[in-house]
Write a structure and sequence with these properties.
The complex is a heterotrimer of chains A (460), B (218) and C (957).
Chain A: H1 3-10, H2 28-40, H3 46-72, H4 87-111, H5 121-141, H6 168-201, H7 205-215, H8 222-255, H9 267-293, H10 302-332, H11 336-347, H12 351-366, H13 371-375, H14 377-404, H15 419-442, H16 448-459
Helix pairs in contact in A: 2-16, 3-15, 4-5, 4-8, 4-9, 4-14, 5-6, 5-15, 6-7, 6-8, 8-9, 9-10, 9-14, 10-12, 11-12, 11-14, 12-14
Chain B: H1 8-33, H2 38-41, H3 55-61, H4 66-69, H5 84-91, H6 102-110, E1 116-117, H7 130-135, H8 140-144, H9 161-169, H10 195-201
Helix pairs in contact in B: 5-6
Chain C: H1 3-13, H2 17-26, H3 30-35, H4 37-52, E1 67-68, E2 83-92, E3 95-104, E4 107-113, H5 126-136, E5 145-146, E6 149-150, H6 153-169, E7 175-179, H7 185-197, E8 202-205, H8 212-222, E9 227-230, E10 237-241, H9 252-260, E11 273-278, H10 283-287, E12 290-293, H11 296-312, H12 322-331, E13 336-340, H13 346-358, E14 366-369, H14 379-387, E15 393-397, H15 401-404, H16 411-416, E16 420-425, H17 430-434, E17 437-440, E18 449-452, E19 458-461, H18 474-482, H19 489-501, H20 505-515, E20 547-552, H21 565-568, E21 583-585, H22 587-592, E22 599-605, E23 609-616, E24 624-629, E25 657-665, H23 684-687, E26 690-692, H24 693-698, E27 722-727, H25 736-744, H26 752-756, E28 765-772, E29 777-784, H27 793-797, E30 803-805, E31 811-813, H28 823-827, E32 834-835, H29 840-843, E33 863-864, H30 870-882, H31 895-899, E34 905-909, H32 916-921, E35 926-927, E36 939-942, E37 944-946, H33 950-956
Classes of the chains: A mainly alpha (460), B mainly alpha (218), C alpha/beta (957).
Chain lengths: 460, 218, 957
């Protein structure tokens, strides 16, 4: 291959917007071969084992701490009076925001017919799936009496009593339920044609049956394709709307309360912007190593990273605006308690959380404006990791510092997370990457069906 | 290459999907239905007692008034359970040697209380008050059923929250003249004042206060 | 029927062998557990739980679980579900506070004040409230023991007989009796008899928290020791010199009521004015109109100067405040009163007596009566005798000198030298551990007795229950030492009163029991005259330098309540400290030797040295350190052992001490987490609104806010509207309401660790705010409980509707519906909601039978909060409903309201104009906290008005 191509593979050459999204020379056959081969490998890569072991053990840590939580009670966490919400809510918002990134790429850009989206959407969607799964855990763990969570569900019970519909938490319950199930459907629907491909290529009977069942009898007739495209389009449209609604409602979980620091009209957009940022960051974090380890450079090219990085920078600007509004309203609102709280937030004992938020979510992503940095994948990786951390601190700052200074000084308090808090956090991270590794092992990491159409378009 | 699945596979697949759907629906049905079973509600289950005490015999047969044994029903939250002493007021005279009454005699002789098994059991967070219901013209039978026809006592109503709420929503039809409260066989007749009239007379207002959580839960 | 009723039946049955037998049949493993008495109650407690869950019969769906266990014969006057109330008294340091104890199914569950008792007038102090837990304390279970090994009652009686023989033979030589201070006529009578029987025997009294200085002072002034009874309602000017007038002094509960009657300008014609001079803040100083910081040296100077000005009309410079204060006092001749605390030297007390006489208050603002406490020899004399080996037999009744004796005395060593010593103790303690014989003492609620209130009024104390652990009464053991076979305690007490009641004994006796007071037993004011020389006395000038003062622990008194978790976890009024008693140092001292709260210091006096933590107390004199005695018990129950620091070893010196920073620091569990004086942009006067009397005269409605427009519709109140008004002019922060609420509403304790994690559960807290400089701040108290907002933010955010409004305007918390999202607490602007992070109630160290059966015991993971004592409202409503009438305006009295010594709380139906609460809410001072939140709280406050003296401002410049 020519030096230009090497550079292109490495993604260090300056991509132009009229660049092809894919490395020229990919044929339908070669492409399908490469991707299918990855899923059908008899033996996993060595690096896969190295990665899966820690993730699996962290997953055990997660479930261990959940069992202990149910046995002992919510008190094993750092939540107290007046900081009644803690890590559980922080992680919930954190994960749900990360989940969004996938939906943006797979649904929103699908509707906009963005070419470069095609080779990333499978990874993005899978990420959505597991991030949403992590997120879905926490609202239940957070409850004082988790075994009664179903009381949020309106069913005809023997008490003749129904949920309280004015509560944002109830809206949240529905938003999450819809979002998780819809993501699962969307992901699976996209998978069906590829499952069929694998079924036909699987060497052994076992895999043939396994993939065959998952393909649900998809044989690629034009009728099936017509239905598939229609359904996929509709679902994509729904997902695009859902991803905005779910984050608005997560925002309302806070804005819906009269609590100082939360009671702000800008929360829904703020949370959507946050979701953009952390979503894209996590996608990049997954893409960079995967394209290397799985030799996917021809399909996930420098152009992809380039676009994603620029998107990251843009969403960071949007978020910056929200942060400024946050500061502005708490000053302009002229509510003594609000101002006291904000002062405490920026300069008090939790100053680090606030400034971590600013540094990681506002300053860091701005580096993405520089092409040279954008092209350096190590730098990009670091920046994105920074963003993910920054987003966690943003939630910490919203949840904890808002609560630790209330209207009455007599009710001021502090918050100290415990080891169990940490265990649950790292556990959920482990669980997430464990899931991703399973996808990488058994599922085509790139949608072959969609790629084929893309390649056709490009080569014609 | 050979097809992975034979044509029957389609049927199998469809059946599996149907079964899954059925399972889900069934689960929901069970979730909804089980709490409403008499088994779960312990409704109409006669409870074995150390002494096979028959309300039927004592109320219908001998015409003993409820308050003879349940002394505090009109004055206190608790209706009160008769001490052994009460049983022996009669049974020191009659059936003095009956084998089934041995536990009662022993109880008095060795000063050991009788351990009756519960028939009605409200959760600790429900604070029921007998006296106010008596005062407002709710007959014993409304909750305890026709005890006078129970050779062995059983729970006559579900005692679920909806059971209480139904009445608290519209008490009128279940109210009766105070004179008839302890009358197990009483039924509305032409002479009975209308529900409205009774509610007015006993100054009971439907809804509002009666439906407050704080009426039963503290 | 709920499980709580089963517990009741258990309560009756727990001493019933047949029941135990049955239990053993069910759980064979119980046999040996029940055999050991000290395990007995814990086991029974488990049984109660088992019963509650239908445990005994085993229970599965389809069969109702559990048993109903009626008595064999019904006990008289006990109807399940209806409370009984019996009058008695709570005795502390020999002084009685009349109480009425509420029973459910024959078991005491709540203490109220006795309206007929002059020391109470219906109110109580925290100690009386906490007695419920003291009574049920499982650690009270003790064995009769001889040199530490369990012994039988027969062995004890035999030992007593032989000892009595020896005593009788030697006519009591070497026989000594040591008791706490007492005013009980019966005890006095028995003591008189035993001393008559054994001329050589001696009776000694030791009360670590005593008023000996005051006694010696009045002796100097009047020629013999006298008690002073204040009448604060008649006093226009009150000057407290390091005074415990509103917390500690005998009768302080009554004094608080009298004081409050003159503090709200909308209800009293002339508002009183309070001056306080003190080395460290007291409750009186905290609510005073003028508070002067005065260490021992300044105090001595001030007293001399004051005496000069008041008695001899000499003018004075230093301290500058004395001039105007003296002028103010003299200007109110006959309506002024000066009170000195027990920490002041006898000379000061003598001068104060002289000044009060000169100010003409006698008979108006105070009376002088003969001492109430029975005279007896001192502890010093006893220890001297013991060390000299003159003591062969020592009987110690309800006293703990090994722990409480002055650090300069080594009572333990002296005790070891005594051949035969008997300790009659209510619970395991340091003294009982060293005595030859330890005998469990019957609790005041388990026996008959009598005691006198601060004004001499006698109360006959009747037993509230059969002894839980067969304890022996003081009367019985004394009678045995006399050498007679004791009759019943009832007979003994009746004998005391027989001649006084005369012919109509039975009626008089019955009346005394019903009223809780013996009519006409109040002491008549004495006419003893002031000795001429009294005015010439000058208090000794203490040496300069650091002074270490000792005060009784505000929560544990002298340490006797150390095993009571309610009191251990009660936030101290000013520091809000729980579970600890650090050394209080002044901000100035803290700055000088670079100490922060929690830092450890080495403290050394002539008596001894210890290492303890410090707490910085605003408003404390620069060179004063203050230590609370009472905590740091070495031998007591599971709750109080080795909590805090034992500072008794430091006592007894000349008051000088050295302090140096030590290594390390400890976390102190204060429920007050904010920076003491920095409230951010919030200011105290927006929260505790306050003004001077002049400002109030100019604008009586100064506390009102101009209403701001609201977006949302507000539901109009219903026909019944429960509401509360809290008068900030009355609240002295004494904490009686906090414990009353805890007792009434089954509020669990959480322990020091959980308090440190900010998870205390008190439904009712008293906020304390400071304004001004750390050296001399103004302090403010504000009781904080659920506001029952008409537009409650908490209700809006609960997804399951577990907190809702009822038709009478109560914001009700439905525990059994709560899933524990805790959003309601986040959304509560007042932060009055509490959450069960763990199974706090389950872990509480108290028998199931001690809970209030009318209130749910909350489970883990459930939110809870003040319910306006819903159970009391329900009781009243049902009674009224049965009579087809409306609930009377004053029919419902909440626990806090009932307990409050100053009637700061008013509760009732604001929809009835006749109700007190409606009247109070009509007061111009009435304001709603955080009004701008538009929550429309049903609980409102009456703003604080203070009555400063303009002359002081000029004098101090």
């Amino acid at each position: 291959m020519s030096g230009a191509e090497d550079a292109f593979l490495a993604g260090t050459a300056r991509p132009r917007n009229d660049d092809p999204v894919l490395l020229p020379g990919l044929t339908l056959g070669s492409l399908t071969d490469r991707i299918a081969a990855l899923a059908l490998r008899e033996r996993a890569f060595f690096w896969w084992w190295v990665a899966v072991l820690p993730c699996a053990s962290l997953t055990l840590v997660l479930f261990g701490s959940i069992i202990w939580l149910f046995y002992k009670g919510i008190g094993i966490w750092g939540v107290d009076w007046p900081v009644d919400w803690g890590f559980a809510i922080i992680e919930y918002v954190w994960w749900i925001a990360i989940a969004s990134g996938g939906t943006f790429i797979s649904a929103l850009f699908f509707l906009m017919r963005v070419d470069w989206r095609t080779s990333t959407n499978r990874i993005a969607e899978s990420m959505t799936l597991f991030a949403a799964a992590c997120a879905g855990l926490f609202p239940i763990l957070h409850l004082g009496r988790p075994w009664l969570f179903y009381w949020l569900f309106p069913y005809p019970n023997t008490m003749g009593y129904w949920p309280q519909w004015r509560s944002p938490l109830l809206w949240d319950f529905w938003a999450i339920l819809t979002y998780v199930s819809a993501s699962l459907l969307f992901w699976y629907l996209g998978l069906i044609p590829d499952m069929a491909t694998l079924r036909d290529r699987a060497p052994r009977r076992g895999k043939q049956v396994l993939y065959g069942v998952m393909a649900m009898g998809f044989r690629g007739t034009s009728r099936q394709w017509r239905h598939w495209h229609a359904t996929y389009g509709v679902l994509a449209a729904i997902m695009a709307a859902l991803v905005c609604s779910v984050h608005s409602i997560v925002g309302l979980d806070f804005a819906g309360g009269a609590t100082i620091g939360w009671h702000a009209t800008q929360f829904p957009p703020l949370f959507i912007f946050g979701a953009f940022l952390s979503g894209f960051a996590m996608v990049i974090i997954l893409l960079i190593p995967l394209r290397r380890l799985l030799r996917l450079e021809p399909m996930i090219t420098g152009r992809h990273l380039d676009v994603l990085c620029r998107l990251l920078a843009v969403s960071s600007l949007a978020l910056t605006y929200s942060y400024m509004m946050d500061a502005f309203t708490s000053w302009y609102g002229a509510d003594a308690a609000e101002r006291t709280m904000f002062a405490a937030r920026a300069t008090g004992m939790y100053w680090y959380a606030y400034w971590a938020t600013i540094v990681f979510n506002v300053s860091l992503p701005q580096l993405m404006w520089f092409r040279r940095l954008r092209m350096n994948q190590i730098v990009v990786l670091l920046i994105c990791t920074g963003v993910i951390i920054g987003m966690w601190f943003e939630r910490y700052e919203i949840v904890v510092t808002s609560l630790h200074r209330t209207h009455l000084p007599s009710a001021w308090g502090n918050f100290h997370g415990t080891y169990w808090d940490l265990a649950t956090l790292v556990g959920s991270v482990g669980f997430f990457f464990f899931g991703m590794l399973m996808i990488v092992r058994f599922i085509p990491v790139i949608s072959m069906s969609e790629m084929r159409s893309l390649v056709q378009r490009q080569n014609s | 290459m050979a097809a992975v699945f034979k044509p029957q596979a389609n049927i199998a697949a469809k059946l599996t999907l149907l079964c899954l759907a059925a399972l889900v629906l069934g689960g929901i049905g069970w979730w909804w239905g089980y709490p409403r079973t008499n088994y779960r509600r312990q409704e109409f289950w006669t409870v074995q007692q150390p002494v096979p005490f028959s309300h039927e015999h004592h109320v219908n047969g001998l015409g003993i008034d409820c308050r003879f044994c349940h002394t505090s029903v009109a004055t206190s939250s608790s209706a009160g359970l008769p001490p052994t002493y009460t049983c022996m007021t009669c049974h020191s005279q009659i059936w003095t040697n009956a084998a089934i009454l041995a536990p009662v005699r022993d109880s008095l002789a060795n000063d050991t209380p009788i351990h009756w098994h519960r028939v009605y059991d409200l959760p600790d967070y429900v604070f029921f008050n007998h006296s106010i219901h008596i005062a407002k013209g709710i007959g014993c039978a409304s909750c305890h059923g026709e005890v006078n026809h129970m050779p062995l006592t059983y729970k006559a109503v579900s005692l679920e929250m909806t059971f209480c709420i139904d009445c608290h929503q519209n008490p009128g039809p279940r109210m009766r003249p105070r004179s008839e409260i302890y009358n197990m066989d009483w039924a509305r007749d032409a002479m009975t004042p209308s529900p409205k009239a009774l509610m007015a007379e006993y100054n009971v207002r439907a809804g509002g206060r009666l439906l407050d959580c704080s009426t039963c839960h503290r | 029927m709920s499980a709580s009723r089963q517990w009741r039946s258990l309560a009756e049955l727990e001493n019933d062998p047949a029941f135990i037998e049955h239990a053993i049949q069910e759980f064979p493993s119980l046999r040996e557990a029940l055999a050991a008495p000290q395990k007995r109650r814990r086991v029974l407690r488990l049984l109660a739980a088992a019963l509650a869950t239908g445990g005994l019969a085993g229970c599965y769906a389809g069969e109702p679980g559990g048993h109903l266990i009626p008595a064999v014969r019904n006990p008289p006057n006990i109807i399940p579900g209806l409370p009984n109330r019996y009058a008695t008294a709570h005795v502390l340091g020999g002084h009685a506070l009349g109480t009425v104890v509420t029973h459910q199914m024959g078991r005491p569950i709540k203490v109220e004040g006795n309206p007929y008792h002059p020391s109470s007038l219906g109110a109580t102090d925290p100690y009386a409230q906490a007695e419920v837990l003291g009574f049920y304390d499982p650690d009270r279970a003790m064995l009769i023991s001889n040199n530490g090994t369990a012994a039988s009652r027969q062995a004890l009686l035999a030992a007593l007989v032989s000892a009595q023989g020896v005593i009788a033979a030697t006519s009591g030589a070497g026989f000594r009796i040591l008791t706490g201070a007492t005013s009980s006529p019966t005890t006095e009578r028995l003591m008189a008899r035993i001393l008559a029987a054994y001329p050589e025997a001696r009776w000694h009294v030791w009360e670590p928290v005593n008023r000996d200085n005051a006694m010696r002072g009045t002796a100097l002034a009047y020629g013999k020791p006298m008690d002073v009874v204040a009448r604060l309602d008649a006093a226009d000017i009150i000057l407290g010199l390091d005074s415990d007038l509103l917390g500690g002094a005998p009768g302080w509960v009554r004094y608080a009521r009298d004081f409050a009657s003159r503090r709200n300008p909308t209800r009293t014609k002339t508002m009183s004015r309070i001056y306080a001079a003190e080395p460290s803040p007291t409750l009186l100083g905290s609510i005073a109109d003028h508070r002067f910081v005065a260490g021992p040296a300044e105090m001595a100077a001030a007293v001399t100067a004051l005496a000069g000005a008041v008695l001899h009309g000499t003018s004075t410079e230093a301290p500058r405040w004395v001039g105007p204060v003296a002028a103010d006092l003299k200007a109110h001749h006959g309506r002024a009163f000066i009170h000195a605390g027990p920490g002041q030297p006898a000379e000061t007390h003598a001068l104060v007596a002289a000044m009060n006489e000169a100010l003409g208050g006698r008979g108006a603002t105070y009376d002088v009566i003969d001492p109430l406490l029975a005279p007896a020899a001192s502890l010093d004399a006893l220890i001297a005798d013991m060390q000299a080996g003159h003591v062969s037999t020592l009987l110690m009744i309800d006293t703990n000198p090994v722990f409480t004796a002055l650090g300069t005395h080594d009572f333990a060593a002296a005790l070891r030298a005594v051949k035969f010593s008997v300790a009659l103790a209510k619970a395991p303690d340091e003294t009982a551990a060293l005595a030859t014989w330890t005998v469990p003492m019957a609790h005041d609620w388990e026996t008959w007795g009598d005691a006198r209130g601060h004004d001499g009024t006698a109360t006959i104390m009747q037993p509230m229950a059969l002894p839980l652990y067969d304890g022996m009464s003081a009367a019985e053991i004394i009678t045995r030492f006399i050498g007679e076979t004791p009759g019943t305690d009832l007979a003994t007490v009746q004998d005391t009163w027989r001649d006084q009641f005369g012919t109509s004994f039975d009626t008089a006796w019955r009346q005394a029991l019903v009223d809780g007071v013996v009519a006409g037993t109040a002491s008549t004011p004495s006419d003893v005259a002031l000795s001429g020389s009294a005015g010439a006395i000058t208090p000794p000038a203490p040496p300069a330098g650091l002074r270490l003062l000792f005060r009784p622990d505000p929560r544990l008194h002298d340490g006797r309540y150390a095993n009571n978790p309610w009191l251990q976890e009660l936030p101290e009024p000013l520091t809000k400290l729980t579970w600890d008693n650090p050394l209080l140092i002044s901000p100035d001292l803290a700055r000088r030797i670079k100490l922060r709260a929690g830092d450890k210091v080495n403290l050394r006096t002539s008596a001894g040295a210890i290492t303890m933590a410090v707490w910085v107390q605003p408003g404390q004199a620069p060179d004063v350190m203050l230590a609370w005695v009472g905590n740091g018990r070495h031998v007591t129950g599971a709750v109080g052992t080795d909590i805090g620091w034992d500072v008794y070893p430091l006592t007894g010196g000349d008051g000088s001490a050295t302090i140096e920073k030590a290594k390390g620091s400890v976390e102190l569990a204060s429920t007050d987490h904010h920076n003491l004086l920095d409230y951010g942009t919030a200011t105290v006067d927006t929260i505790v609104r306050h003004a001077s009397l002049d400002e109030f005269a100019k604008n009586p409605r100064f506390a009102k806010e101009a209403p701001t427009p609201e977006l949302y519709w507000r539901k109009p109140p219903g026909p019944v509207a429960w509401a509360m008004s809290v008068d900030l002019n009355s609240c002295i922060g004494c904490n009686a309401c906090v414990i009353a609420c805890q007792a009434e509403n089954n509020v669990p304790t959480v322990g020091k660790e959980e308090v440190l994690r900010e998870r205390e559960m008190h439904w009712l807290r008293i906020d304390r705010y400071y304004e001004g400089t750390p050296e001399a701040p103004d302090s403010f108290f504000q009781p904080m409980l659920c506001m029952h907002c008409e537009k409650a933010p908490c209700e809006l955010v609960c997804p399951v509707g577990a907190t809702v409004h009822d038709s009478e305007g109560l914001n009700v918390m439905v525990y059994n519906r709560c899933v524990g999202t805790r959003f309601c607490s986040n959304n509560c602007p007042y932060k009055v909601r509490r959450f069960n992070f763990f199974d706090f109630a389950g872990e509480d160290n108290r028998p199931a039978v001690s809970w209030n059966p009318d209130v749910s015991v909350r489970a883990r993971g459930v939110m809870e909060k003040c319910s306006y004592c819903l159970q009391r409202i329900s009781e009243a409503r049902i009674t009224a409903d049965k009579e087809n009438r409306r609930v009377h305006p004053q029919e419902v009295v909440t626990a806090c309201q009932a307990a409050c010594p100053t009637q700061a709380f008013t509760f009732g139906d604001v929809a009835q104009p006749a109700s007190d609460v409606a009247k109070r809410k009509a007061s111009p001072l009435d304001y709603a906290l955080l009004e701008d939140q538009h929550t429309h709280p049903r609980t409102t406050y009456e703003a604080l008005v203070r009555n400063p003296n303009p002359a002081i401002k000029e004098a101090l410049g």
